[in-house]
């Protein structure tokens, strides 16, 4: 399947099976998610004006996203990573000694529902898009995301654990309208 027709990879881990599907969410994000090594300012220059973006929100149906899968949606021109976390990922995130973190935040303070982690997919170092959304991607040593630009590693709560990035992956404003309906923005 051509990369340019998809913006979101889904993945499935946990039962020894791995598959690669794509959810076609919008045609406006061509190349955004695939361009992991392209710095974000370049991408942003193609986006609509800021005053238009400021008003926008993105609604996402989470029904097709199984445990262990991740999708990427676009909100205000930015990639937002949505991961349906496994029990293992939730436990790993909760078991971290927060005092040892560079940007100390509990996992509980970063989620509204433990099974859903929702973060802005932009590295806090220099703005690349970290890898970890697709089954074939490296996820670093902490079951999260790996930024190929300078090697930052994020954990399964999107917190910075290694490499030069100073901060955790940002949290977008969002609310669950129902158990499976998410509104970002
Ligand atoms: S931009 Fe991610 S490590 Fe530098």
UniProtKB/TrEMBL annotation:
Membrane-spanning parts: 22-43
Cellular compartment(s): Cell membrane
GO MF, one annotated term: metal ion binding
Membrane topology: Single-pass membrane protein
EC class (word): translocase
Any one Gene Ontology cellular component term annotated for this protein: plasma membrane
InterPro entries on file: Rieske_2Fe-2S (IPR017941), Rieske_2Fe-2S_sf (IPR036922), Rieske_Fe-S_prot (IPR014349), Rieske_Fe-S_prot_C (IPR005805), TAT_signal (IPR006311), TAT_signal_bac_arc (IPR019546), Ubiq_cytC_Rdtase_Fe-S_su_TAT (IPR019470), Ubiquinol_cyt_c_Rdtase_Fe-S-su (IPR006317)
EC number: 7.1.1.8
Residues covered by the Rieske domain: 82-183
Catalytic reaction annotation: a quinol + 2 Fe(III)-[cytochrome c](out) = a quinone + 2 Fe(II)-[cytochrome c](out) + 2 H(+)(out)
Cofactor binding remark: Binds 1 [2Fe-2S] cluster per subunit.
Keywords assigned by UniProt, alphabetized: 2Fe-2S, Cell membrane, Disulfide bond, Electron transport, Iron, Iron-sulfur, Membrane, Metal-binding, Translocase, Transmembrane, Transmembrane helix, Transport
Cofactor: [2Fe-2S] cluster
Function comment: Component of the ubiquinol-cytochrome c reductase complex (complex III or cytochrome b-c1 complex), which is a respiratory chain that generates an electrochemical potential coupled to ATP synthesis.
Note, other: The Rieske protein is a high potential 2Fe-2S protein.
Protein family: Belongs to the Rieske iron-sulfur protein family.
Assembly behavior: The main subunits of complex b-c1 are: cytochrome b, cytochrome c1 and the Rieske protein.
Protein name (Swiss-Prot/TrEMBL): Ubiquinol-cytochrome c reductase iron-sulfur subunit
């Amino acid at each position: 399947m051509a990369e340019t027709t998809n913006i979101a990879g889904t993945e499935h881990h946990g039962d020894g099976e791995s598959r690669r599907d794509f959810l076609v969410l919008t045609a406006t994000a061509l190349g955004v998610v695939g361009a992991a090594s392209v710095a974000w300012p370049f991408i942003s220059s193609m986006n609509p004006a800021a005053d238009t973006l400021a008003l926008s929100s993105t609604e996402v149906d989470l029904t097709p996203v199984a445990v262990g899968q991740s999708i990427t949606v676009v909100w205000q021109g930015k990639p937002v990573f949505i991961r349906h976390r496994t029990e293992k990922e939730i436990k790993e995130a909760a078991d971290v000694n927060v005092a040892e973190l560079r940007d100390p935040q509990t996992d509980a303070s970063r989620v509204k529902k433990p099974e859903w982690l929702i973060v802005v997919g932009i590295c806090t170092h220099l703005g690349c898009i970290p890898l970890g959304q697709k089954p074939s991607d490296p996820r670093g040593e902490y079951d999260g995301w790996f930024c190929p630009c300078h090697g930052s590693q994020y954990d399964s709560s999107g917190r910075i654990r290694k490499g030069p990035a100073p901060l955790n992956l940002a949290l977008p404003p969002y609310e669950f309208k129902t158990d499976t309906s998410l509104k970002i923005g």
